[in-house]
Amino acid sequence: MGKQVYIIHGYGASPTNHWFPWLKEKLIADDNQVSVLHMPNSSDPKKEEWLETLTNKIKNVDNTTYFVTHSLGSITLLNYLDQLDPLPRFGGFILVSGFSEPLSSLPSLNPFTITKVGYKKIISATNSRAVIAAKDDYIVPFQLSQNLSNQLNTSFYSVEKGGHFLEDDGFITFPLVYDILNNMMKNI
Hints:
globular
């Protein structure tokens, strides 16, 4: 039985960027249902529009639902999950270069991090959680991803050299994400 995977891109990106198309193809080949959500105005993102997109596009959240997020997509997902009442149990998530604190380099994104997320609520609803971060990330400081991992009590995968895991950093495939997700989906 296949799983439902939602891939949520970040700031300035689209579903056709970076490693998202590759991951989608790999997961579909394994008989999963995959949606790479198209987040509106990604070069000038608005929190309300992004949350509305998740509300409209995510059909159901249950034990077969998994999320893979990149950068700004991570805090957007956490805000979305936090506002679900009740939040049903679901499969899990992988947050790549995620953050939950303001980025000094991108103050326009502060509205996304202003509200404190209910981490305990999200932890108790998930089976599997992971955060991936690169020590040389030049957009989201490594420490912020580490903080997020601690707050969510996730497995933490540290990559020596990955930058922000963009196409420009050489990431048109991302086997680490695929492997972690596969392990999560097998362990149900």
